[in-house]
Amino acid sequence: MNFEAIQAAAKGYEADMTRFLRDLIAIPSESCGEEGVIRRIAAEMEKVGFDKVEIDGEGNVLGWMGRGSKIIAYDAHIDTVGIGNRENWTFDPYEGYETETEIGGRGGSDQEGGIVSSVYGAKIMKDLGLIPEDVTVLVTGTVQEEDCDGLCWQYIHNEDKVTPEFVISTEPTDGGIYRGHRGRMEIRVDVHGVSCHGSAPERGDNAIYKMADIIADVRSLNENGDSDDTEIKGLVKMLNPKYNPEHYEDARFLGRGTCTVSQIFYTSPSRCAVADSCAISIDRRMTAGETWDSCLEEIRNLPACKKYKDDVKVSMYMYDRPAWTGLVYETECYFPTWINKETAPHVQALVDAHKALYGDKRVGSPSTPEAAEKRRAPLIDKWTFSTNGVSIQGRYGIPCVGFGPGAESQAHAPNEITWKEDLVACAAVYAAVPGLYKGKGDEDVCEYRGGRTNNDIK
């Protein structure tokens, strides 16, 4: 394989990739409103010579190249979060900007840069004849990830009937190759109360006061240690072999789980009445050894929840927002943890490509201090946040690995930027991977996988 030719081709497409990314940034594409960006990606795929381009029922765009039976897929979610408080931006988030080295705008790092590099990585493969005869390359621009991680790949796997040999997630990795991340779930706690006139609150049963006790316990669950004399042992306990004997080492690799109250709701007849219900949402990040049902039971067993007994209901959210196509594809808000073995063939294919092209250190010199510091971390690592890998590998066991342009610290942040150097490096590595992949062996590539629930969903 001529690695110098791959590098030269990727560098030669830098201006095309910059133009393409700026076009995508200019089209607002929040979850469930991605049609404009999807159609722009489909047009670029056709322009650069994909063999087939299609948009599925959920609104994902799938670009195919090659004719082999073995599918190697590159996934990029192309929806973004909103811009938040416009006053926090120093430039127009959709007009964006570019300098000699960087591109600014909503979606630059999270994660429209990934689809740009993968489309042009596939073009380089075709230009240089790098697709093996037994391989078909699939590039997916996927929707609704910011709303519901992995829902798109539930649809692709179950309805489009696509099961790749492995998938490269192009989420931002700060120049690293990422072999897993924590899972997450969205928990709801409802508390029942009884209303009365606010002038005599003792006649009622204030649901907000009950919830205040529960919120204090949720905070303790996140912040406490795990000593024997601690009533509510904190989530740090999963790093301790005493509490997590089978998976504490994996938990230490991923990092401890967390929980935080992210939303609060109430009902009351008026502002001069006692609240008769209160509910909260909990964002729960899950490390190895934690399951969807163990996380629910953990909340149910908090002292305040046990104190209020039947007045408390703990449940998992369901997601049912319509896609931009109008499709409703309901699923549970549970997103499983996963880790690959470092020795897995698909992980090593990326490592081999990176070492051949750029060496064994992360490339790039980003202009933000946090991103620059991250480039000094080991080449093989893990994400802090969650990706479509929760379905690809966490739910279905399809091998997945991450390498993508941009920085985690830029995700969801105002003044979001990415770096042209990353677009080039990722396109080059993507192009080299199919020819370096040695195929599946007998070894299970999963080091840890949360798996599906036993709930009756598609």
From TrEMBL:
GO molecular function list: hydrolase activity
Superkingdom field: Bacteria
Protein name: YgeY family selenium metabolism-linked hydrolase
Keyword GTP-binding attached: no
Organism, scientific name: Dysosmobacter acutus
Taxonomic placement: Bacteria, Bacillati, Bacillota, Clostridia, Eubacteriales
InterPro entries the UniProt entry points to: Peptidase_M20, Peptidase_M20/DapE_YgeY, Peptidase_M20_dimer, Peptidase_M20A
Keywords annotated in UniProt: Hydrolase
Boundaries of every Peptidase M20 dimerisation domain copy: 180-302
